[in-house]
Design goal:
The chain has 175 residues and is an all-alpha fold. The chain is 67% helix and 0% strand.
């Protein structure tokens, strides 16, 4: 039989931000009934306010809770840390999440710029281009939206949301 699960130590008891980050992710993944990931993320940010992974994780948690402006500040902090020496970071999730938070606040042009930056890394091209296509469609730029949906499909041909958007755009354009 496997060993019984042991409860996580309190956030203050964990030694590193790595442990705090992983504890928070674990709690989110398994939706623990008695522990909140927020305490682990906040302890990590208390120790290092510029921690990229914890800012992105906590910002994403806030985003899911509908706290778009608070989430934005964490994504901006992550972007600031990411771009300290490199304007095109290896991982661009912070840009993607920033773009989502801006889009959900109705700041579509600001969102567009952040989302375009997220497409720098291959991992975020599919969702980045798809969300850009959604914004372009909302703004009435149907030809641009169609091109962006196609870019999303190049990265992930099974993105059914992008396929659906493309079909709707083609229908709207009479094609």
């Amino acid at each position: 039989l496997p060993d019984a699960a042991k409860p996580l130590p309190e956030p203050e008891e964990l030694k590193t931000n790595e442990q705090l980050y992983l504890a928070g992710l674990h709690l989110e993944q398994y939706r623990h009934a008695t522990f909140e990931p927020e305490a682990y993320y906040l302890e990590g940010l208390k120790r290092d306010p510029g921690d990229i992974r914890i800012n992105v994780a906590y910002g994403t948690l806030l985003l899911r809770r509908g706290l778009f402006e608070r989430a934005e500040s964490h994504f901006r902090r992550a972007v600031k840390s990411l771009t300290w020496r490199n304007p095109n970071p290896y991982d661009s999730e912070a840009y993607y999440q920033l773009g989502l938070s801006l889009m959900l606040q109705g700041r579509l042009l600001d969102a567009f710029a952040a989302l375009y930056k997220s497409t720098w890394s291959a991992a975020w091209q599919d969702p980045g281009y798809f969300t850009l296509a959604q914004i372009a469609a909302r703004l009435g730029n149907d030809d641009e939206a169609l091109e962006l949906a196609d870019r999303s499909l190049v990265r992930n041909a099974r993105n059914y949301r992008a396929r659906h958007l493309k079909a709707a755009l083609l229908r709207k354009l009479g094609r």
